[in-house]
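Exercise: predict the fold of this chain.
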Amino acid sequence: MTTLAHIGSRLAWLAFLGTTAASLAQTPPPPPPVQIRPAASAPAVTTNSYTVNVPVSGPIKPAVKNDPNALKFDAATKSVELKQGETKGLFKFALTNVAKEAVTITSLHTSCGCTAGKLPSTPWILQPGDSGTVDFTMDMTGKFGKVTKTATLATSAGPFILSLTSVAPPPDPTVMRAGDRTRNLQVAAADRQAVFRNDCATCHVHPATGKTGKVLFDAACGICHDAEHRASMVPILRDPKRATDANYWTKWISEGREGSLMPAFALNRGGILTEEQIQSLVSYLEGDFKKEPVKGPATAVPTPTKAGTSAAFTPPPAK
């Protein structure tokens, strides 16, 4: 009896355990615990019906977007042509803020130190609809031809790039600076044939090559005798103080004169003119040259001599 009763008790206990296990299998487990960490200005996130705060580093800001159309310029590229002797290219760019918000120009940079720009103020704040100008100066000293530089405006709407071009004529060999003129006169006073060498050859040799008659006179003779600022030793041939003839002109052109600025132009005396060129000059001087009107008075420049003084030179009378 005892044994049967013990076995029945164990069977009842096993049946209870099976029922309890089945009940537990049908009941969902509780959700895992969630650690909640609050943060200022943090957005709410809902997961499995539980609301938690997601930490962030700071308030969310919209991204800054460049606007290449915020500023409207009258032109993005400008060019100026300089006259002979001018050394500064001047530029003026007009601009308007066409955006709905203010635009701040913080700085201005150029691609070369020879070009400088000027803003009305730094920083320069342009409200919607505001207009103004930016000025630039390009230094062209010692330069000629086309020179292009760029300028960049750094703004709150992004960079704006402008292009500036200066066009300068080549130097005129007949235009001489005062310092160069004085130096050349001193060289010629010491050696009258020096006008045919080195830098002087640009004006006194090259222009005369292959020319005859009036064209040759303008290139080789008039450059000094008809010059607006001639040396005091150089006579005005168009207003002679004595009679002239073919022999007079031939002698002076061929031989020149020692102790003066007048060089010998004949090839056999260290000059640059052939016999044919000299005769073409003589024919012109004794012909059409005498019929041409006398030009206005020129400004005489003191001529240094070997002794360091200045003197005016007048050719002797023809023999």
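Check your answer against the key: The longest strand covers residues 145-155.
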